[in-house]
Amino acid sequence: MPRRHGSLQFRPRKRAETTKVSFRSYPELKEGPKLGGFPGYKVGMLHLIAIEDRPGRPTTGTEIAVPSTVIETPPVNVVGIRAYKRELSGLKPIATGLIVEKDDPLSRLFPIGSGIKNFDKAMEAIEGRKEEVGSLRLILRTNPQMAGGLSKKVPELLEVPILGGSIESRIDYARNVIGNAIRVMDVFREGQLIDITGVTKGKGFQGAVKRFGIEMLPHKAGKGRKKPGSLGSRHPPYITWRVPRPGQLGYHKRTEYNKRIMKIVPAEYENGVPIKLVEDLNPPGGFINYGLVRSDCIIISGSVMGPPRRFIMMRHPIRPPSYELGKPKIVHISTIREVSS
């Protein structure tokens, strides 16, 4: 049987339930308190010229070209808080507090009537049982209408933990940011490594050659070339899960570790509406299949899963390397879009 190349790590290879992805775990931070992650929307790719500062590289100290991805990160609004206690069976909620106005965009997700305001009552319950609190999380609402390349207005409702510091300091942090907006520069810094999760491009139902990379059979194969040479032995009398078979390819949730933030580009706002970027990154005519970037954005080295406009979730690195990197030295950012003849 031809050798199969596809990984058996991700099974079953089925379509993701939703593009609103989240992380199952977050690392512990020494500094803080601060938000554990931040959402964004994939824009597209460009390349920049930077000085190689990673240790032990043959090109250390010289200029290199870095293919990078732009992710637009509009500010998120803090609409609530939720505290959990740790038990043997997992996390159990203690209290949930929300402050949602009547005309909040969350009304596009669920009916809120005249608004929801039970934050103070929830904080009293949390402070009375703060010795039981094992995880304190903020409830965030995204602002997709601030992103230049999106036409959607329905926000995502997220739950992101507060990392670093004591429980008392986390409670004070939550009390200070409730009802306010948090920007990406309040969570991440230039040069640090982050983890990214998202849903990959969907490619539909594909055969075993494209799905697992097996070799094609010789041209003398009379019943087809793009199929496995053998489906296995006669006994056991069934096809095992190790045999490459056709099926869904793409549209899977995937996580990539230790992607470096090369640059954070802030935007100017007036009455909650983005006016312009401090440093314009838009190529002539905008990014392909996205448009113009208007809100805060970050540039990440390397590629990011999914097509343009895909929802992306970022967090602090859960398995960072032994060395730390400072702010990258960027020489030039290319915004020229190549057009094939």
TrEMBL record:
Keyword RNA-binding: yes
GO molecular function list: rRNA binding; structural constituent of ribosome
Organism from which the protein derives: Candidatus Methanodesulfokora washburnensis
Cellular component GO terms, alphabetical: cytosolic large ribosomal subunit
Family: Belongs to the universal ribosomal protein uL3 family.
PROSITE patterns per record: RIBOSOMAL_L3 (PS00474)
Keywords annotated in UniProt: Ribonucleoprotein, Ribosomal protein, RNA-binding, rRNA-binding
Tagged with keyword rRNA-binding: yes
Protein name in UniProt: 50S ribosomal protein L3
Pfam families hit by this protein: Ribosomal_L3
GO biological process: translation
Domain of life: Archaea
Gene3D superfamilies the UniProt entry points to: 3.30.1430.10, Ribosomal protein L3, domain 3, Translation factors
